[in-house]
From TrEMBL:
Domain of life, per lineage: Bacteria
Gene Ontology annotations for the cellular component aspect, listed alphabetically: plasma membrane
Entry EC number(s): 7.2.2.12
Transmembrane spans: 108-124, 130-149, 359-384
The keyword Transmembrane appears for this protein: yes
Broad class of where this protein is predominantly found: membrane
Name of the featured protein: P-type Zn(2+) transporter
Family named by the database record: Belongs to the cation transport ATPase (P-type) (TC 3.A.3) family. Type IB subfamily.
Catalytic activity: Zn(2+)(in) + ATP + H2O = Zn(2+)(out) + ADP + phosphate + H(+)
Species of provenance: Desulfobotulus mexicanus
PANTHER family found in the cross-reference section: CADMIUM/ZINC-TRANSPORTING ATPASE HMA2-RELATED, CADMIUM_ZINC-TRANSPORTING ATPASE HMA4-RELATED
NCBIfam families according to UniProt: ATPase-IB_hvy (TIGR01525), ATPase_P-type (TIGR01494)
Length: 727
């Protein structure tokens, strides 16, 4: 049977494929050897768990066709199986998490069966089980220790001595000394912690996947004057794509016919609807809010701006440096202390038996595996109950240490819908009268500003008046005839069309614009009646959340937004944010974050759109708020707030700090019992069997202490800020 591979991602200079044979160690080795002399291939990376291969190449020296020919020859096939839709490649790494859980469960179950069998035999038949190295139990236990030994040897070749090596040494020593059950206790606790961590990681991934609205994307292409439905993966450069109200734009291209209001917030972050007409450029990932347009595709699939941003996000995720975790640091301390104490015991007492007892006490993984993993797992579970999805233990650890937080504006600190914030009228016109006329004019308009007018009129209990004429001018406003009088509600373009002038309110218009408000003019019979200013509504909890973060240790808060200067400044001033950056593109946001990290700030980015994705991946911790927003942002973030409540950000920050406090307590619980056990063992007052009981005792203590995090609630986040300290 011929081997196959599929192209998962393909842009100039980079190719990613998936082939099941890559899971074989021999295949990986052969591929690296044969590709060494391939001119133009810069480097390759193989992920056996995902059966994935990423190749970076110099397109000036090595063409895509030549690279595929090399792969065809290597995998022994005549053609390439392309991916139907480049956007659907997310499931390729699902196998890693599921495989990790299955592997961890199998190991834990095997150890549990062996231990349970021995204990049951002893309880029923009242007979002791032989535990020597060459007894059946000893041989089985050594086989179960083999994975730790292999891991330790692999790390030793990298000149690293980790917890796996210490546990392997302790288990092997116990088996050699005829204490196979003690070795099984060590293995059982270690495998249980691994299973818990793998299960939490998979559950987090599945929770995130379940709330994402990932569907197959179709669009309509104009062929011989007829609209034909096509999958986006089938689009080609030059196709005329027809897009209607409410549809997502699937290509980068130029409008050749029609006009529409386009919501470009997913790309630019700006919350206003942009009027796009014939000759204008539109981007994939944006939405047609109102209107019908025909777009000639210039970039499709992996070549669109959205795809390029997603590619940069992916590269940032792949190149992110690993963060040393709490467990790793504690493991390093335990290894040093354990070896030192064991050696000192042997030197001072001359008793190998006492030294062995001390080694067994110190080999308990509680101080490392359980102290950190149980606390973090409990914290992730508690967060999930509050619809806070944490993608890994290290992010739960890191988020509470961040001292610089970058906030996006639209959809993060503000809602996405505008509200009427200010009304200016000329003498003789009351606010309610102006609002009634404006509402009557805008009744049939579905533009967000029009809906804000209608909502404010309803809030005040005002009723709309009947109209004889109602006309909508895309990107400009509305014209209506009410009680025989012509009404105009819209922007300056609408006034110019009808030759209306508003010189009487120029100063007020400039003042409102300088505050970052979007301003609509209200005219009656070509004469001005007043102005209405709109702004995105600030989340009611925003100021309180910022204050909570500052109280818990955040030293600097920065606003980074694609909105214009006036709008950004007004919001920053209203919320007491000292620093802001406006009119930013996605790459510029990421550069600002990277600059701060270079200055040794511990950074967190909070956002909700595609335009935030690069910054989310660049930061130490990325937080996506409101998973009804951008799928790209949720995938790029390390933490996803499934609710649209900004309070959850402060909650997870406080939960992280409380978790680190619990980890420290667990460490001292385990360390304290270890010190007592070491002292008794060195004095000859503790047998190896009793050392095993010490394992179980402080394991239960650590588990009980970590379980307190399961009861975490919002008030705990506020309380913890007064007592927390950086770890």
């Amino acid at each position: 049977m011929k081997k196959k591979f599929a192209v998962r991602h393909d842009i100039p200079g980079r190719l990613r494929i998936r082939a099941l044979s890559l899971r074989q160690t021999e295949t990986e080795k052969k591929l690296k050897e044969r590709s060494e002399n391939l001119e133009g291939l810069l480097w390759l990376r193989i992920n056996p768990g995902c059966a994935s291969l990423v190749l970076f190449y110099d397109k000036n020296k090595l063409s895509r066709e030549d690279l595929l020919e090399f792969l065809n020859h290597f995998f022994g096939m005549d053609g390439v199986t392309p991916l139907k839709n480049p956007a659907d490649d997310n499931p390729e790494c699902v196998c890693v998490e599921e495989h990790a859980v299955r592997k961890a469960f199998s190991r834990f179950a095997a150890i549990s069966v062996v231990m349970g069998g021995v204990l049951l035999r002893n309880a029923i038949f009242k007979t002791a089980t032989l535990q020597t190295a060459f007894s059946p139990l000893g041989i089985v236990t050594f086989a179960l220790t083999a994975p730790l030994i292999r891991s330790a040897l692999k790390r030793s070749r990298e000149r690293k001595f980790t917890l796996d090596g210490f546990l392997a040494a302790g288990s092997t020593a116990a088996i050699a000394a005829g204490e196979a059950m003690t070795a099984l206790e060590i293995l059982w606790i270690n495998s249980g912690a691994e299973l818990l961590s793998a299960w939490i990681a998979e559950r987090s991934r599945k929770s995130i996947a379940s709330i994402l609205d990932i569907t197959s994307h179709h669009t309509f292409v104009l062929i011989d004057g007829v609209e034909v439905e096509r999958h986006v993966s089938e689009l080609e450069v030059g196709d005329i794509v027809v897009l209607h109200t409410g549809e997502k734009i699937s290509v980068d291209g130029v409008i050749v016919h029609g006009q529409a209001l386009v919501n470009e917030a997913p790309i630019t972050g700006r919350d206003e609807q942009v009027h796009r007409k014939e000759g204008d450029t539109v981007h994939a990932g944006t939405f047609v809010r109102q209107g019908v347009i025909q777009v000639r595709a210039e970039f499709v699939g992996d070549s669109t701006y959205l795809a390029r941003v997603m590619h940069k996000v992916e590269c940032a995720l792949e190149s992110r440096a690993p963060i040393e975790g709490v467990a790793d640091r504690l493991a390093g301390n335990l290894v040093k202390v354990g070896l030192g104490v064991t050696a000192v015991t042997f030197i001072t007492t001359g008793s190998a038996w006492r030294a062995f007892t001390v080694l067994l006490v110190m080999a308990c993984p509680c101080a490392t595996v359980l102290a950190a993993s149980t606390a973090i797992s409990a914290a992730i579970s508690a967060a999930a109950k509050s619809r806070i999805l944490v993608k890994g233990g290290r992010y739960m650890e890191e988020v509470g240490k961040c001292d610089l937080v970058f906030f996006d504006k639209t959809g993060t600190l503000t809602t996405t819908e505008p509200v009427l914030q200010e009304v200016i009228t000329l003498p003789g016109i009351e606010e309610d009268e102006l609002l009634t006329l404006a509402c009557s004019t805008e009744t049939h308009n579905h533009h967000p500003l029009a809906q804000a007018v209608v909502a404010e009129a309803r809030r005040r209990g005002l009723s709309s008046l009947p109209h004889e004429v109602c006309e909508y001018y895309l990107g400009m406003g509305m014209r209506a005839v009410i009680n025989g009088r012509e009404m105009l509600v819209g922007n300056a373009k609408l006034l110019n069309m009808f030759d209306a002038h508003n010189s009487q309110l120029t100063a007020e218009f400039d003042r409102m614009s300088s505050k970052g408000l979007t301003v609509l003019h209200v005219f009656q019979d070509k004469k001005p009646l007043g102005l209405m200013g709109f702004a995105s509504q600030v989340r009611p909890e925003a100021r309180q959340v910022l204050n909570r973060l500052r109280a818990m240790g955040v030293r600097r808060i920065v606003l980074i937004t694609g909105d214009e200067e006036n709008s950004a400044r007004q919001l920053a001033e209203s919320l007491g944010i000292e620093e802001y950056h406006a009119s930013l593109m996605p790459e510029e946001k990421a550069l600002i974050v990277e600059k701060a990290m270079a200055e040794s700030w511990k950074t967190m980015v909070v956002g909700d759109g595609i335009n935030d994705a690069l910054a989310l991946t660049a930061a130490d911790v990325g937080v996506a708020i409101g998973t009804a927003g951008s799928e790209v942002a949720v995938e790029a973030a390390d933490i996803a707030l499934a609710s649209d409540d900004l309070d959850a950000l402060a909650d997870v920050y406080g939960l992280s700090q409380q978790t680190l406090g619990i980890v420290r307590q667990n460490f001292w619980i385990a360390t304290g019992s270890n010190l007592v056990g070491v002292s008794l063992g060195a004095l000859g007052l503790l047998s190896p069997v009793a050392a095993g009981l010490v394992h179980m005792g402080h394991s239960l203590g650590v588990l009980a202490n970590s379980s307190r995090l399961l009861a975490f609630h919002k008030n705990d986040a506020q309380k913890s800020c007064n007592a927390s300290e950086n770890y």
